[in-house]
Design goal:
This protein has 420 residues and is α+β, with helices and mostly antiparallel strands. Helices cover 25% and strands 26% of the residues. The chain has helices spanning 57-68, 93-96, 103-112, 114-117, 136-145, 174-181, 208-217, 239-248, 258-265, 271-274, 287-291, 314-321, 325-333, 342-345; strands at residues 17-19, 22-24, 50-52, 72-77, 80-85, 127-130, 149-164, 171-172, 199-200, 202-203, 235-236, 252-257, 275-277, 279-280, 298-306, 337-338, 357-361, 364-368, 375-380, 385-390, 396-399, 404-410, 413-419. The strands form 7 sheets. Strands 3, 6, 7, 9, 12, 13, 15 and 16 form an 8-stranded mixed sheet that branches. Helix 1 crosses helix 13 and helix 3 runs parallel beside helix 5 (136-145). The radius of gyration is 22 Å and the shape is globular.
Length: 420
């Protein structure tokens, strides 16, 4: 049994299908939800102000639509698809102003500097939905401000690597991608393609996808500065620009969030004619590979709040609601992968808390973040109790002879661990 990194991921929806080198577009779900439970007392007047990243903006509106009983629609524009409430002109401006899209770095910074921004605008975000945790720079800012952010996973996305469809390469390994971005592999011929120089594009520092690239792909190993090419430097200042670069450069490669590519960009600018998504380690980023964590670059989407947020506020109630079955159903409706699969987990009590950690190695399950004297239960993914005990200390080692996906529950904390 090999060491496994802790993941609490689970999913219902999302897919990328490769059909003759072109993307097959999957529409978001729009089905009635049974047993939907909202937030008591929440209405259009007291709905909290929420900030989002470009790739999570549709989710922001869909969550509000479900909670406020509003109809919404996907609208196509020149830069992609976006979500708005139907009859937008009839929606009070006081509600319209509750939805921000400051992009990842801007949203995180707004939350960190919340108290300095109060009064600057009518609405200052108390909660954000973004595709990553704080970067090192942002964490320094938070510490300098004496601010602690609670960053809780609520969904699952992935980082896709895309190339021009003229490129003969269909799959790369994790190691090959790392070496391309470290400058060790410089020609497509080295990875089974044509004898052409590889042009690896990156994003600007602190952008959502660039930080994901650093953490999930490069393991926080610094990438070199790239030589001058198409523009002044090989950096792309917006996610949409990624696609234009690939259209212009048949030998380029770049990365993009899966959800953004599949549900926001879709077929805009004729991407189905020039864009190809690469498999990684032979695995495509589709519904099953993201759900089962077999796609190497799956990663969480976070809801973040300040630690000092009033626990009685509607913003805090929304933060907690996003971790309930109704909240996860709303997330699934957007097309993004929900964090928990409540159908599979049966009646297991689930409440996300990143204090609890777990990994397995050589038949031993290592659990930290426990409370002495509190129960520790391990469930199969179908809800069967396979272990019941009481924590003797904050850190426990439990011998296991199990394979598959299991959920460890202690008090109101839970983690999901894969045992191979």
């Amino acid at each position: 049994m090999k060491r496994i990194e802790l993941l609490i991921f689970s999913a219902l929806i999302l897919g990328t299908l490769l059909n003759g080198g072109c993307l097959s577009i999957k529409e978001p779900i729009d089905e009635p939800q049974e047993n939907f439970q909202g937030i008591n007392g929440l209405n259009a007047d007291n709905y909290p102000c929420v900030d989002a990243a470009t790739g999570t903006e549709p989710l922001n509106y869909i969550i509000a639509a479900k909670l406020l009983g509003l109809e919404y629609e996907w609208i196509r524009s020149e830069s992609g698809y976006y979500v708005r409430f139907e009859n937008w002109e009839e929606i009070p401006q006081s509600l319209q102003r509750k939805f921000h899209c400051s992009q990842t770095h801007g949203a995180i910074s707004n939350l960190i500097y919340y108290h300095e921004l109060i009064g600057v605008s009518d609405n200052t975000p108390e909660l954000i939905i973004v595709g990553r945790k704080m970067s090192a720079d942002e964490n320094d800012d938070a510490e300098n401000q004496g601010v602690t952010l609670i960053e809780t996973p609520i969904a699952l996305d992935a980082l896709d690597f895309i190339v021009n469809s003229q490129n003969a390469v269909n799959s790369l390994t994790v190691e090959q991608i790392q070496n391309i971005y470290l400058g060790n592999i410089t020609n497509w011929q080295e990875v089974g393609g044509a004898d052409e120089e590889i042009i690896p594009f990156i994003r600007n520092a602190n952008s959502g996808s660039q930080e994901m690239m650093k953490e999930y792909v490069m393991n926080n190993v610094d990438m070199p500065d790239w030589d001058v090419s198409y523009a002044d430097e090989l950096k792309i200042s917006s996610m949409s620009r990624v696609y234009e670069e690939l259209r212009q450069h048949p030998n380029a490669i770049c990365f993009t969030p899966h959800y953004y590519k599949e549900f926001i960009i879709r077929d805009t600018w004729g991407t189905t004619d020039f864009l190809k998504t690469l498999a990684v380690n032979g695995v495509m980023s589709d519904e099953n590979s993201i759900k089962e964590l077999t796609y190497p670059f799956s990663r969480p989407v976070y809801v973040s709040i300040r630690e000092d947020l009033d626990k009685n506020s509607q913003a805090y109630q929304l933060y907690e609601w996003l971790q309930t079955k109704s909240g996860q159903d709303a997330i699934a409706e957007s097309g993004i992968v929900p964090y928990y699969d409540f159908e599979e987990m049966g009646n297991i009590p689930i409440h996300s808390n990143e204090t609890l950690k777990a990994h397995a190695s050589n038949g031993v399950l290592y659990i930290s973040g426990l409370q002495s004297g509190k129960p520790v239960n391990i469930y199969s993914i179908t809800g069967q109790l396979v272990y019941a005990g009481v924590a003797k200390a904050e850190y426990e080692q439990i011998s296991v002879n199990l394979t598959g996906i299991y959920i460890i529950v202690s008090e109101n904390q839970s983690v999901k661990v894969v045992l191979n």
